[in-house]
């Protein structure tokens, strides 16, 4: 019996010691403001601080659509901004909603001319000011890139056509050295 009492006494002593332990670290520094930073004050609310901002579209002519159909009014080349040097192919396109935009023609070579019907998507060309749209290859009147082997889906090139093109190139007779 005495062994049991001593065991219980030691258990309660341990429990009491752990119960009234002093905290090891105490924060003594006070914060500057008593209100959190993410809440607006009453004056800010009165002035209209809780207005939600709508996201501005980077391709407004598409009117929240993934693509728009349009007709080419002019196909021309232009030079990029300062550090870059090239001749970029660009088309002025009148969309089905009546807006006229400038669109980039991706890939090597194209069959576009005036009155060609094309499909546009969003996405600006970084070194061409004012060009915020790209024409989709392989859609409507715009043919895909011929003989493309990598990233074919982006340029409207089918596997069979690219294989035929590769075979023709590899089996073409080379002129003999004189």
TrEMBL record:
Keywords: Ribonucleoprotein, Ribosomal protein. Pfam families: Ribosom_S12_S23. GO terms for biological process: translation. One of its GO terms (molecular function) is structural constituent of ribosome. CDD domains: Ribosomal_S12. InterPro entries: NA-bd_OB-fold, Ribosomal_uS12, Ribosomal_uS12_bac. HAMAP family: Ribosomal_uS12_B. Belongs to the universal ribosomal protein uS12 family. This is Ribosomal protein S12.
